[in-house]
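Board notes (copied after class):
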Amino acid sequence: MPSSPPVPDPAAEPAEAPTDPGTGVDPGAPAEPPAPAIERARRLTDVVTRLRRALRSSIRTDYPWESLPMAQVELLQTLAAAPLRVGELAARQRLAPNTVSGLVGKLLEAGFVDRQADPGDRRTARIALTPAGLRQLDDWRQAHERRIATALGTLSATDREAVMQALPALDRLARALASPTPAEQPNDQPIQQPAGPGHQVAPR
């Protein structure tokens, strides 16, 4: 009589995941950036965060932040290029449409933006910067420029040159961050259902 297969012991340790003999790494595990790349990203994140915080806190005497919070400033900066629909603004800022609608409502009350008829669709409106909004945005920019110019003046000539030399690379980094990640890009390929009982794949 043939012997029955052995019954696994529940108390036994689970089998280890297969690993690459050359590296000892599970080939199915998600890839992680190398340690030096993570360390560079950590240092850059720390510096950018401290720079942004220091800039915002240091110009409070030059510019009343309460009159124009940063979220509203970012919307005005986006609208400075061209009028946009609320949905387009939300996509550009990567915010929920209802959040952008609330911010736009506050800017409308302040007179910094207005609604314009959309030439492409009479049922919708585009949000546009008003002259008052443009003046407010210019005041905000000038306050930043004055404060940064003052701070740069305290640096050595070597440090000032190093900062300016880094600007092209930082601009490219900003563009890379603004680009959609592969997970955010639309998938144009149709999803194909596997054929099986009750399923038929239509010929192309």
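Comment from the instructor: Strands lie at 113-118, 121-129. Residues 35-58 form the longest helix (24 residues).
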